[in-house]
């Protein structure tokens, strides 16, 4: 496993004893090829000191005065990682053979109330982006230099989170999120579920298997705080209720430690899957796909959207997509669609409502999109999707500076200031090899 670039953070006195907890690390190791073996498990802190150890293929390590994994901008020293080391000694005809495996481990908790998303018992507000694994030279796919550039831009922006729209990203991305403290909503490739036949038993069985694969791969990443099983399904169709009830229950069985959602653009009254999610994630594009050019209607429409969803379900809400297409360098006053002024104006109207509702039950906002990306050619797309706040070459549009000012303001308002916390045992998802 390549954890990516190094994480610079020493185990100094920055987490005072009042802020430490008894951490629990549950582990389970699968061994193939021999039934005659011994396992030694050790947990090391960032200075290489052994803080807990055990034997056997499963167990629980208790870490007194544990350093917690905190998101970027939520703590002075975020993203603290331990190293879980497993040493196997197997008896073979040729004599004893040893193998060794190490896994970065973060200790943290995630919980959801009817109006809050909590990390380590503290309210967390998602101020982040939606992304794509896309750029103009390599196209789609993983690219290390591009990833480092994107993470530097995320930190510049003051973003603390993103959604892997609309598919699992490369494992290296998850590893870097662990080390940077960037929170992830991990989404399956469940996109385009819009036909009645998409809800067949065959599709459901495949979707269950996809979630098994995703959870198995990513469950050990502390940066992953929520699973998203789908994006913009036709969740108003009659079979959707049973489909999402089954799918979400299965995902919770796979990983009881994380909330589960899907991202909807259906009407709150018609959505048959929403009763089963832990967090309501809503996509809306007011004054873009309807009411063209009329930004004055956004505040009323958005406030009404939030109020109806919350009144119906009493669950925290994330504005999981919003935005406007913008061609860099296009300027118009008064603002016209596709100009930089229109994108900024639309975002400002959304932010006025988000600032009201985040005091009540809205727990996040994710802009669509981090950067322009290529799509199939059509009369609706001018060389791809242009809703990025950065161009496909990662150059900022005017909206990037607007969002940067907002996100740093939000970070300063919601930053964890280190109030005293009673000592308690906190855990994380089981670590499985």
TrEMBL record:
**Which Pfam families does the entry mention?**
Glyco_hydro_2_C
Domain Glycoside hydrolase family 2 catalytic, chain residue ranges per copy: 110-411
Q: Which Gene3D superfamilies match?
A: Glycosidases (3.20.20.80), Immunoglobulins (2.60.40.10)
Q: Which protein family is it in?
A: Belongs to the glycosyl hydrolase 2 family.
Q: What is this protein called?
A: Beta-glucuronidase isoform X4
Q: Which organism is it from?
A: Equus przewalskii (Przewalski's horse)
Q: What gene name is given for the protein in this entry? A: GUSB
């Amino acid at each position: 496993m390549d954890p990516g670039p190094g994480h610079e953070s020493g185990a100094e006195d920055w987490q005072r004893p009042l802020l430490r907890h008894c951490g629990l690390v549950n582990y389970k190791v699968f061994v193939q090829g021999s039934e005659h073996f011994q396992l030694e498990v050790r947990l090391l802190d960032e200075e290489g000191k052994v803080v807990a150890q055990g034997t056997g293929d499963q167990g629980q390590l208790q870490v007194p005065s544990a350093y917690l994994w905190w998101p970027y901008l939520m703590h002075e020293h975020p993203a603290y990682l331990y190293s879980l080391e497993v040493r196997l000694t197997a008896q073979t005809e040729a004599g004893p053979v040893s193998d060794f495996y190490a896994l970065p481990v973060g200790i943290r908790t995630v919980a959801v109330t009817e109006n809050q998303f909590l990390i380590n018992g503290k309210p967390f507000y998602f101020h982040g982006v939606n992304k794509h694994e896309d750029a103009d030279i390599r196209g789609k796919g993983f690219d290390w230099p591009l990833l480092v550039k994107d993470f530097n831009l995320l930190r510049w922006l003051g973003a603390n989170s993103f959604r892997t729209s609309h598919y699992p990203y490369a494992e290296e991305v998850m590893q870097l999120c662990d080390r940077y403290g960037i929170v992830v909503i991990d989404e399956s490739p469940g996109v385009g579920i819009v036909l009645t036949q998409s809800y067949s038993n065959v599709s459901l069985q495949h979707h269950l298997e996809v979630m098994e694969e995703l959870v198995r791969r990513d469950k050990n990443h502390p940066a992953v705080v929520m699973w998203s099983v789908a994006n913009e399904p036709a969740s108003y169709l009659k079979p959707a209720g049973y489909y999402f009830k089954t799918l979400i229950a299965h995902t919770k069985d796979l990983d009881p430690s994380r909330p589960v959602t899907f991202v909807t653009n259906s009407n709150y009254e018609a959505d048959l899957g929403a009763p089963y999610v832990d967090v309501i994630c809503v996509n809306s594009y007011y004054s873009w796909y309807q009411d063209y050019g009329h930004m004055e209607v956004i505040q009323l429409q958005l406030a009404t959207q939030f109020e109806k969803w919350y009144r119906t379900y009493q669950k925290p809400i994330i504005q999981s997509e919003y935005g406007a297409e913008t061609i860099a360098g296009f300027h118009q006053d008064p603002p016209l669609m596709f100009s930089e002024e229109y994108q900024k104006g639309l975002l400002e109207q959304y932010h006025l409502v988000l600032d009201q509702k985040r005091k009540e039950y809205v727990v996040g906002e994710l802009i669509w999109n981090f950067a322009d990306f290529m799509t199939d050619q059509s009369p609706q797309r001018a060389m791809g999707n242009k809703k990025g706040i950065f161009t496909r070459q990662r150059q900022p549009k005017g909206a990037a500076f607007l969002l940067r000012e907002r996100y740093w303001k939000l970070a300063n308002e919601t930053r964890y200031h280190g109030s005293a916390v009673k000592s308690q045992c906190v855990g994380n998802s089981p670590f499985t090899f």
